[in-house]
């Protein structure tokens, strides 16, 4: 299978990135400093991820508000132009086709941001234009993200959480949202290819650490943020993932609503739960989990937490367990004692 390369591929290679296939793309997994150092740089300072593998479906027209309202789960009347919103696209059975960020850019203009491998599925549900290849998306994340991005352009420092803005940079329009996927403060810059390399280089010059998908995964796991294909799939539901707040019950309709209503009435079949082991052994998705010898499901995600210095994992389990409950994780035939912990694993101050 031939994989696409992001526009900044050569820049990543020049920085010593290890490139891996991901979602149909060749993306940086880590740079010379390694995943743990990049993870901690995000928690303590600022990093930049190239997340150009994410899609951008541009929906422009007076009818788009109503189209998005009746298709996606969340309720756009909760926000307004100049804001971003997390939402889901469901199938008729209530399974999750994708989890999405919608940037409400202008009165009748929306940038719908699907996951890398799901852009075609979103395009089949929405009458938009795929502009993914025309821009790069740079996610600047960390407690010093806005301050350091402001060294490149002061306007980057003014983008508040879940706000969306656009302005001229080098003669082209750059779109920026106060969003991210790390549990840290930050912003995501959708820059046309004409200026993307300049912005990336100037961020590096401003002492923003380049980070790869390895750190992005450990960061989102510590923050207990779901990953499509793991916590969210066609065979799992929004309610199982404890994301009921993205369901716009006050709207007239959204795709999959009838199935989700039935699930709400009968109760969920599985419960998203966090577990941790006492040592540094990384947990892995697919590991079976037991309580008193009874299998209750498996991990949907797992890794080593650089912040907590222990193995952590998320799972969808057949019973609800209170924090402090003892479980056994079977990893490659080895039984590991683990404990249910409250989510998120790492709590950040607002």
What does it look like?
The protein is α+β, with helices and mostly antiparallel strands and 350 residues long. Among the domains are: 9-55 and 132-222, Probable tRNA modification gtpase trme, domain 1 (Gyrase A, domain 2, 2-Layer Sandwich), CATH 3.30.1360; 270-341, Elongation Factor Tu (Ef-tu), domain 3. 20% of the residues lie in helices and 34% in strands. It contains eight helices and 19 strands. It has helices at residues 9-14, 35-44, 64-71, 119-125, 145-149, 193-205, 213-222, 257-266; strands spanning 18-22, 25-30, 47-50, 57-60, 83-90, 96-106, 109-113, 129-130, 135-141, 164-169, 172-177, 186-192, 209-211, 271-277, 288-291, 294-305, 310-317, 326-331, 334-341. It has a six-stranded mixed sheet, with helices on both faces. It has a six-stranded antiparallel beta barrel with strand order 14-17-16-15-18-19. A hairpin with a 5-residue loop joins strand 5 (83-90) and strand 6. Helix 2 crosses helix 7 (213-222). It is globular.
CATH top level label of one domain: Alpha Beta
- Tell me about the largest β-sheet: 6 strands, mixed
Number of strands: 19
Low-pLDDT residue spans:
none
Please give the share of residues in helix. 10-25%
CATH architecture annotation of one domain: 2-Layer Sandwich
Rg computed from alpha carbons, rounded to a whole number of angstroms: 20 Å
Lateral strand order in the biggest sheet: 10-11-12-9-3-13
Give the number of helices.
8
The CATH topology of one domain corresponds to Gyrase A, domain 2
Return the string of H and E elements.
Answer: HEEHEEHEEEHEEHEEEHEHHEEEEEE
Q: Name the beta content range.
A: 25-35%
Distance between the termini: 43 Å
């Amino acid at each position: 299978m031939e994989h696409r390369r992001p526009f900044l591929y050569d820049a990543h290679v020049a920085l010593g990135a290890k490139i891996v296939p991901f979602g149909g793309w060749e993306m940086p997994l880590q740079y010379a400093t390694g995943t743990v150092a990049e993870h901690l740089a995000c928690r303590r300072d600022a990093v930049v991820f190239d997340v150009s593998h994410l899609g951008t479906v541009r929906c422009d027209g007076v009818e788009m508000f109503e189209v998005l309202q009746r298709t996606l789960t969340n309720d756009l009347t909760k926000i307004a132009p100049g804001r971003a919103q997390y939402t889901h696209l469901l199938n008729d059975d209530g399974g999750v086709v994708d989890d999405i960020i919608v940037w409400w850019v202008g009165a009748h203009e929306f940038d719908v941001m699907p996951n890398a491998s799901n852009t075609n599925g979103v395009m089949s549900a929405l009458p938009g234009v795929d502009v993914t290849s025309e821009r790069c998306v740079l996610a600047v994340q960390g407690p010093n993200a806005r301050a350091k991005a402001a060294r490149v352009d002061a306007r980057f420092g003014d983008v508040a959480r879940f706000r969306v803005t656009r302005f001229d940079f080098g003669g082209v329009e750059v779109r920026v949202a106060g969003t991210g996927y790390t549990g840290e403060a930050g912003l995501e810059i959708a820059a046309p290819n004409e200026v993307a390399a300049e912005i990336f280089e100037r961020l590096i010059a401003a002492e923003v650490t380049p980070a790869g998908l390895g750190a992005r995964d450990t960061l989102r796991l510590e923050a207990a943020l779901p990953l499509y294909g793991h916590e969210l799939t066609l065979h799992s539901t929004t309610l199982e993932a404890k994301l009921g707040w993205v369901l716009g019950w006050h709207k007239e309709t959204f795709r999959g609503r009838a199935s989700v209503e039935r699930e709400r009435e009968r109760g969920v079949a599985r419960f998203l739960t966090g577990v941790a082991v006492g040592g540094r052994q990384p947990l892995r998705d697919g590991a079976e989990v037991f309580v008193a010898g009874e299998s209750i499901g498996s991990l949907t995600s797992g890794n080593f937490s650089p912040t907590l210095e222990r193995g952590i994992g998320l799972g969808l389990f057949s019973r609800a367990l209170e924090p402090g409950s003892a479980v056994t994780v079977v990893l490659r035939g080895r039984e590991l004692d683990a404990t249910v912990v409250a989510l998120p694993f790492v709590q950040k101050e607002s």
